[in-house]
Design goal:
Radius of gyration: 19 Å
Distance between the termini: 33 Å
Strand content: 15-25%
Strand order of the largest sheet: 11-10-9-12
Number of strands: 12
Structural class: alpha/beta
Oligomer: single chain
Largest sheet: 4 strands, parallel
Length: 258
């Protein structure tokens, strides 16, 4: 391990880390949107070895630093389960790692959540919390292509969290140029403000979303809690219907890729 940085505010209850792993001379090729598995040491309460926990890769295919044989992951420390105190063996192990520690990694896994090869394709990314990991990998890959003079399609990100203090990568995202990526934040627990979720932000940007839905080279990615998926699909349905698009055809196309 060569990097371990907390990426949520130090006063936030959500303790999320950006962890960088270096593979040295070991050939370990990955693509944006894939996962790796990490096996924490020790045994569980029944004396069995812990199972590997999969984490989304948060860096582009050429490494956290371009040209380096490394990658990054986004890890949220698990401290409760079903409302009861519970220390996730993998997340706490990873979040407590120190520079130079060696860990067991398996993978990579995943082949359906990948960025298209066409740099001019439009990418619409919808995520909450650590679901931002693959979106970061996508964005970094496109940005490095753009730095090399490669034209790119529209990048649009809807990113949700309880508060801005609990939103991973909030600071770095603020520094990305608006003409490079169009970002909408949605916070559901800001004191004194109404609850706002990603689907609410999507409806506010209905005109832009309808244009992307109508274009054949647009790709939609959703990553976060399973419970948010229904709200996102309903928002896309409303946007398509209001724009006069055939939702059955549009929805079938989106599901075909999912």
């Amino acid at each position: 391990m060569t990097g371990n940085l907390r990426i949520t505010d130090k006063h936030a209850g959500n303790d999320t880390h950006h962890v960088v792993l270096d593979f040295g001379d070991l050939h370990f090729p990955v693509l944006e949107g894939q996962n790796i598995g990490i096996t924490p040491p020790g045994v569980d309460a029944n004396g069995r070895a812990h199972m590997p926990r999969q984490y989304s890769i948060a860096s582009p295919r050429d490494g956290e630093r371009a040209g380096y044989n490394n990658l990054s992951i986004t890890v949220k420390r698990v401290t409760e389960h079903e409302g009861k105190p519970y220390l996730g063996p993998a997340s706490n192990y990873v979040c407590d790692l120190h520079i130079g520690d060696e860990i067991d990694v398996i993978g990579p896994f995943g082949k359906t959540f990948l960025i298209p090869n066409d740099p001019k394709a439009n990418l619409l990314m919808i995520c909450t919390g650590t679901g931002s990991a693959p979106m970061r990998g996508f964005t970094e890959h496109v940005r490095r292509q753009a730095d090399q003079g490669v034209p790119h399609g529209k990048l649009m990100l809807f990113f949700g969290a309880r508060t801005k203090e609990e939103l991973p990568y909030f600071g770095p995202l603020q520094n990305l140029p608006r003409d490079f990526i169009d970002i909408e934040f949605a916070f559901s627990r800001t004191p004194g403000q109404p609850r706002r979720y990603v689907q609410d932000a999507m409806r506010e940007r209905a005109a832009d979303l309808a244009k992307l839905l109508a274009e054949g080279d647009s790709h939609f990615y959703v990553c976060g809690l399973k419970s948010m998926e229904e709200g996102v699909v309903l928002a896309l349905r409303d946007v398509a219907t209001q724009a006069g698009l055939n939702w059955e055809a549009v929805g079938a196309s989106l599901k075909k890729e999912g």
